[in-house]
Amino acid sequence: MSLFMEEMGEAEISTAVVMGRRCLLPGDGFSNQSNSELTELSTLYPGRFLCLAGIDPMEQGAVEEAERCLRRPEFKGLSLEPGWCTPPLLADDPRLDELYDLCARYEGIVSLTLSPHIGPDISYARPDAVQRACRKHPDVNFVIMHACWPFFADIIGAAMFTPNLYLAPDCYFYVEDMPMAGEMLKAANTFLKYQVLFASSYPVRGLKQSVTDWTNRNWNAESLELSLYENAARLLKL
Q1: Nearest to residue 103, comparing CAs of 158, 161, 143?
Q2: Lesser CB count within 10 Å: N end or C end of the chain?
Q3: CA-based end-to-end distance of the chain
Q4: For residue 181, what pLDDT is reported?
Q5: Looking at residue 157, what is its pLDDT?
Q6: Rounded CA separation 26/85 (Å)
Q7: pLDDT tens-digit readout, 169-189
Q8: What distance in Å separates the CA atoms of residue 182 and residue 48, rounded to the nearest whole number?
Q9: Beta-carbon count within 10 A of 195 CB
Q10: What contacts 185, CB < 8 A, 6 or more positions away?
Q11: pLDDT at position 22, please?
Q12: SS3 label, residue 88
């Protein structure tokens, strides 16, 4: 952790958002994370880490665990990976509604991780269900990690008409020569400048490299500042 804190300093990152992960796939111990570890982290480093509680919607007691976390100040919302549930779920599956309603009640963010890796096939990354979930729960802000890559054109179109839909394209945006990244940049510089968020997808890249590669895109100054700080600060009520 001392090395990670040094890395945050070198990248000039004041506050990191830690994404909880809890998807109880058979034999997948890596994803079986306790939210109490996130509480411990935020306690050890006051003001440096904000957390999204990892919740497996299909796990017994998921709603109770989500509410327990949302009552605590270090948790700013929930982190869900519906395509990795057992059975896998689309973003608008009715079995997620109770969790979405909790976030509306506690003003928490819903983070959904959606890309070809998150689910049994690429259909679970399609943005259609995301937009339906956003419109069904207009009082909840949804942040889409990986931004449904490779369906950037679709999610851009959905976000343009869905004000509670935010995109964090992370490594699918800043990695050199990534297909479709140029379209995301056009949207982030114009129509979606208030709805695009920087994320490192650590440890895909080191923190400083992630910030550098993100910044080196052909941004206009206002949109870059919004993506690196102001949009997230507004969402997190900093």
Answers
A1: 143
A2: N
A3: 24
A4: 97
A5: 98
A6: 10
A7: 999 999 999 999 999 999 999
A8: 32
A9: 24
A10: 173, 217, 218, 219
A11: 87
A12: coil
